[in-house]
Sequence to fold (292 residues):
Amino acid sequence: MAAENAAGQGGPTAGEYIIHHLTHWRNKELVGPFDLTVVNLDSAFFSIVLGILGCFLLWKAARKATSGVPGRFQAAVELLVEMVDSQAKGIVHNAESRKLVAPLALTVFVWIFLMNAMDLLPVDLLPVIWAGIYGTAGLDPHHAYMRVVPTADLSVTMGLSLGVLLTCLVYNVKIKGFGGWIHELFTAPFGNHWALYPFNFLMQIIEFVAKTVSHGMRLFGNMYAGELIFMLIALMGGAIASVSLGTGIALAIGHVIAGTAWAIFHILIITLQAFVFMMLTLVYIGQAHDHH
Fold:
């Protein structure tokens, strides 16, 4: 697409192409006293759809589970469940809590993996389809913004990390009691002395904030970087039309090789990032069970 502008066909430049692909489809309405233009409708849509898909896949595996020789799908799900369960047992030592925490960790892993995997779709596939829908509806297709990787949206990853924080707060109160948790806020980590209460409380708040922010930022940063690299690789293919035959052939070969290599490597990244987010979720909930 960047090549079209160089050829004088009025297409977007490389910068405009990337900016367009990094712009969200947003709600333009004002609701009550708050401006909710920051609601990214594309991220919300794909997050919900992929969450439903993940739950459906797990439900289907549980429904068709058999005590005989399992099929490939059942074997894969059983392997995943056993992996998450073993990690949960090693981190969260309360058997009663694991009845909720282990399925929660499994859901987090599957959901984030599916959202990350949207990055493996061709960069222009869904945006071009969306632009066609816009055009069919009589709207300007140039304003048809669509980002398909929810975890490359900071609002989504921070929302997930805030959900983990709320879960940790609930378990802090459940395990220690409300009074016990408040006592811990003012007596750990420096000790139970009235002069240390402000410093203890400040350190506790800093810890909660730091864990939550780093939890969400880590996932966002990795997926955002991966999305950008796919766009740069796509620009290699878009530049073919504006160069000589020999250079165009070289760009085409480089585009295919780079795209294939990065996609294969990215499979590891999307899996690893889902695993890291799940493990940190277990670690933070496990810490909520610890008494200081």
Summary: The first strand starts at residue 30 and ends at 31. Residues 245-288 form the longest helix (44 residues). The beta strands are 30-31, 34-35. The chain has one domain: 2-288.
